[in-house]
Amino acid sequence: MTNAQAWDYAVGMIKVDGLEPTKEFKEYIEKEKRGELTMTDIKEYLDKRYKVKEG
């Protein structure tokens, strides 16, 4: 499975649950597919965006 196929599969699995990735996240995915970003960049984006606030 190619990287692009893996992303397409992952997004498809999200959509099965009736959810849709944000436009910004889709842009990150496309950049990662083109080699402009790494999986580390994606992880940092997700960690920053969905960080759990304590207290």
Brief digest:
It contains three helices and no strands. It has 55 residues and is an all-alpha fold.
- Please mark out the parts with pLDDT under 50 across 5 or more consecutive residues, or reply none: none
| Beta strand % | under 5%
Instruction: Write down the domain tally.
Output: 1
Q: How many angstroms separate the termini?
A: 42 Å
Shape: globular
Number of helices: 3
Give the rounded overall mean pLDDT: 90
Helix content: 55-70%
Global structural class: mainly alpha
Radius of gyration, Cα only, in angstroms? 12 Å
Order of helices and strands: HHH
Overall strand count: 0
**How many strands, what sense, and barrel or not for the largest sheet?**
none
Oligomeric state: single chain
What can you tell me about this protein's structure?
The chain is an all-alpha fold and 55 residues long. The protein has helices at 3-16, 23-33, 39-49. The protein is built from three helices and no strands. The mean pLDDT is 90.
